[in-house]
Amino acid sequence: MSEEFYRIRRLPPYVIAEVNAMRAAARAGGEDIIDLGMGNPDLPPPDHVVEKLCEVAKKPDAHGYSQSKGIPGLRRAQAGYYGRRFGVDLDPESEVVVTMGSKEGLASLATAITAPGDVVLAPNPSYPIHTFGFIIAGATIRSVPTTPDEAYFESLDKAMYYTVPRPSVLVVNYPSNPTAETVDLAFYERLVGWAKANKVWIISDLAYSELYYDGKPTPSILQVKGAKDVAVEFTSLSKTYSMAGWRIGFAVGNRELIAAMTRVKSYLDYGAFTPVQAAACAALNGPQDIVDRNRELYHKRRDVMVESFARAGWDIPSPAASMFAWAPVPPALAHLGSLEFSKQLLTHAKVAVAPGVGYGENGEGYVRIAMVENEQRLRQAARNVKRYLQSMGVNQARASGNR
Ligand SMILES: Cc1ncc(COP(=O)(O)O)c(C=O)c1O
Description:
Elements: H1 6-9, H2 15-28, E1 34-35, H3 47-57, H4 72-86, E2 96-99, H5 102-113, E3 119-123, H6 129-136, E4 140-144, H7 150-162, E5 169-173, H8 185-198, E6 201-205, E7 231-236, H9 237-240, E8 249-253, H10 255-268, H11 274-285, H12 289-311, E9 324-328, H13 337-349, E10 351-352, E11 354-355, E12 366-370, H14 375-391, H15 396-399
Parallel strand pairs: 1-10, 3-4, 3-5, 5-6, 6-7
Antiparallel strand pairs: 2-8, 7-8, 9-12, 11-12
Helix pairs in contact: 2-13, 3-11, 4-11, 5-6, 5-10, 12-14
The site of pyridoxal-5'-phosphate has 13 residues, from helix 5.
C-alpha cells in the first residue's frame, strides 16, 4: 500500500506554517506577540448582521441543509451589490453562485474546469489557492508576474507562445495579496481583449474590493464590455464586513464557468448554514457605513504603520489598497532571506509577519505585513522593530532619531 498520494506529493510544506507554529509556541509560553502575519480581520462585523444571524438561528425551520449554490435572496443581494458598486448587471440565477468563502469557491472552480496536465497562468507571488487550487486539480502552473505593466503582457504572450499545451486559464488578483498592487479599468480592458484573442478564461479575485485608500475605487473586471464572455470574478464578505469566519464568498460572471462550478459544488456541499446566508443578505442589503468606516480605519493604520516603521529604520512602500504592506527585507539583512528574517522578527521583536517566500519564489526578499492590529499596537511593533534593527546594526543613525 503506497502512502505516496498523488495530490499530497504536489503540496509542499506550507512555509508560512513554520512562522505560525513559532508564534503559537511563543504565545503559549505567555509572550505578547503582535500578530501582523495572517490577514485575519480584528474588527467585528456590523451589529445588525449579528442580530440577523441570531434571529434566523432561533427559527426551528432554519437548521436543515441549505442550498449549495446559495439561497436566492443572497444571490440577488450580490447582484444588487454589483449593480450599485460597478454598474454591472448580473442574472442571480445563472451568473451568481454563493461559495463557502472565496477560497472554497476558487478550489471548486479549479476542480470543475481543470483536466490533469492543463496549464494555468497564475501570478507569482500569489495567495496560495490561486496556484494550489489548480495543482490539487492536476494542473501545471506557469508563473506570470504580478506587476501590471508592459512586461506583464509580454510574459503572457511568451507563455502562450512557448507553452504546450497552451494555457487555458489566467488568474488575476488586484488589489493583490500579497503585493497590494492595483490596476485600473484600462488594464482589464486590455486583459479581456488578450484573453479573447488567446481563448483563455480569466479568473479574477477581488477579495479586497472595498479596501482602497487613495480615493480611486477598485474596478471590477466585469465593468469591461464583453468581459462576461471570458471572465468570472470572486468577492468575499471576509474583509469588507470583517466576516472571515463566516465563510461567505461569491463567484459571478460567465455562465458556463458558474454552471460548471455550481455543478461540482452540488456534489460537495449543501451550502452555508441558512442563518449565515440570511445575515450575509443583511450585510449586503443593509447600511453600508461600516464599509466606509473600515476603509478609513485601515487607511489610518496604513499611515501609522508606514510612518512609524520608517522612523524605526525600515522603509516600507505605502500600499494603495488591500490590508497588507509588501515590505522589502531591510537591505542590510537581505542575506537572511524572508523566512529567517520573519523568524528573527518574531523572536527578537515579538512581531509576527508572513515571509514573502511563502507566496512563491518571487516573493523572496519581502515580508507581508497585515494591518490587523490597532494603531497603538502598530506603534508598539515599530518600537520593537527599531530595537531589533539597532541590535543588528541596521540604520543606527536613523533609528536613533536623526530623521
Ligand atoms: C486574495 C484573496 N483571495 C481570497 C481569500 C480568501 O477569502 P475567503 O475568506 O472569502 O475565503 C483571501 C484571504 O485572505 C485573499 O487574500
